[in-house]
Amino acid sequence: MPGDLPRPTDAELEILTVLWSIGPATVRDVYNVLSRRRPAQYSTTLKFMQIMADKGLVQRDEKQKAHIYEAARTKEWTQRQLAGDLLNRAFNGSAKELLMGALSARKATPKELAELRSLLDDYKKGKV
């Protein structure tokens, strides 16, 4: 599996989110979840998932008549890749500016702030 997969588009990320939440699934399964959220076409979902398989974003098991798809990488891995890309492209590599941008975009809850403090403490101690 390649180390550097292409950055997923918004539509591909939506499909990955479904696969992370329900696990390996058919196109029909993914389409059913997507169509409950917003109008969707089965054929469009199928085409996106075929393209995603070609890109290496999902793996396809073709042993059964209905192919089973699963995300090639974990949610956490993908989030790290997207955060790193955003960090470099939009914040010139500054973690501080990225964090400040995120905090200014949406008010964090006291619980989230406490979790951030804990994560920063762990990072400082080399635990993360």
Give your account of this protein's structure:
This protein is mainly alpha-helical. It has six helices and two strands, in the order αααββααα. It has helices at about 10-20, 25-35, 40-55, 75-90, 95-105, 110-125; strands spanning about 60, 70. The radius of gyration is 18 Å and the shape is elongated. The mean pLDDT is about 95.
Give the strand tally.
2
What form results from the Cα inertia axes? elongated
Strand portion, in percent? 5-15%
Low-confidence stretches: none
Describe the biggest sheet?
Answer: 2 strands, antiparallel
Work out the radius of gyration: 18 Å
- If helices are DSSP runs of H or I spanning 4 or more residues, what is the number of helices? 6
Oligomeric status: single chain
Q: Alpha-carbon distance between the termini?
A: 25 Å
H/E element order: HHHEEHHH
- How are the strands ordered across the major sheet? 1-2
In terms of structural class, how would the helical and strand content be classed?
Answer: mainly alpha
In round numbers, the mean pLDDT is 93
Helix content percent band: 55-70%
Which properties best describe this structure?
two-stranded antiparallel sheet, mainly alpha, elongated, single chain, 128 residues
